[in-house]
Amino acid sequence: MQDQVWTVDAVRDLGVTTDVETAGAILGIGRTKAYDLAKTNEFPVRLLRVGRRYLVPVHAILKLLYVE
After folding, report:
1. How much is the pLDDT for 68?
2. Which of 2, 5, 16, 20 has its CA 20 to 30 A from that of 30?
3. C-alpha distances in Å from residue 32, one per residue of 20, 25, 45, 59, 61
4. Other C-beta atoms within 10 Å of 14: how many?
């Protein structure tokens, strides 16, 4: 994911949700830090917890970036 260029269209193409690692990459947050923020409920956008997984609504990322 590090070499990915995150354009608005690329983010929208992710679908409804994405994983914490991808969301972190879009927001300029490293993988380890992204998971640390998720575990402490400090991730910059709302997360959905499904079992042991964290899902990030793509709409929330776009809203944070002022793109809706």
Report:
1. 66
2. 16
3. 10, 11, 16, 23, 19
4. 17
27-33 mean pLDDT: 96
pLDDT digits (tens, 9 = 90+) for 2-20: 578 899 999 999 999 999 9
Q: How far apart are CA 53 and CA 68, in angstroms?
A: 25
3-state helix, strand, coil in the chain (%, to 5): 45, 15, 40
Q: Does pLDDT of 23 surpass 90?
A: yes
Q: Which of 52, 53, 61, 49 is nearest to 13 (CA)?
A: 61
Amino acid, single-letter form, for residue 22: T
